[in-house]
Amino acid sequence: MTMKSCPRFIGLFLTGATYFSVVSAVFAQESQSYSHLEDTIGSISFTSIFISSFLLIAFAAISLFVKPLKNSAKKLLFICIATVAIAQTLFLAGSTIYVNVISYSKGPVHYHADFEIYNCGSHVELLDPSGLSNKIGTPTLHEHNDQRIHLEGVVVEDTDQSLGKFFHVIGGYISSNSISVPTNNGQLTLKNGNTCPDGIPGSLNVFVYKAINGKYVQQKITNPESYIYAPYSQVPSGDCVIIEFGPSEEFTNRLCRSYQVAEKLGKIQNGGRLNN
Known about the structure:
Elements: H1 5-28, H2 37-65, H3 71-102, E1 108-119, E2 122-124, E3 136-137, E4 141-143, E5 148-154, H4 163-169, E6 173-174, E7 178-183, E8 186-191, E9 203-212, E10 215-220, E11 240-246, H5 257-264, E12 269-273
Parallel strand pairs: 1-11, 10-12
Antiparallel strand pairs: 1-2, 1-5, 3-4, 4-5, 6-7, 7-8, 9-10, 9-11
């Protein structure tokens, strides 16, 4: 390998690895209806960092254990190391700028919304995080076993800030007439017409509490998959979402704990129901 061929080899190596990562991501998500661009680029970035680290360690090992080295070989190693470092830095900087520029949010955000799920009156707990992870979902959109939606990153498309996207990334879904979520006892799927233990057919009811001018108001939503929760970090003013499977109702008496605490502290007051 000559001094001129080293940068070319590294460039081709990194480009090829990135290309295969992109292709794999695209085909893996071909059937998805939500944007995964930020997570895909994050995965590619991780791959490129791994490759770059491997190359830098290899070049360092050569410089330490291969003796003696001619001046031409030293120059070659220096060029190779510099090329890897510069290429990796440019890729990380470029991908970060690209995602922020094309994103719906025009930069990273930190939004939260609380939720509670009930199945025929029984509270439903999502699957607990396992292993080294303290969340279920993705680095950008997840839940920390706290019944809170965490959106922490770039909103590439407006649908990234939807209930549908959240339930999708945690391994389930939500629609106007059904919901499916992962629990510690397996996947729980509820559909309109399924009967409760008392024999009464159930249906999916989704209610949202919004904090408006110091008051919270309740609204029933008929298309929860596309619902965009409020862009706030604190809850409230972030939304409280109550999901109940049971008899069809036009309102709920349940309220997220965060809203209960805020009401007791006098931060918000009950403003009744919001007309659809």
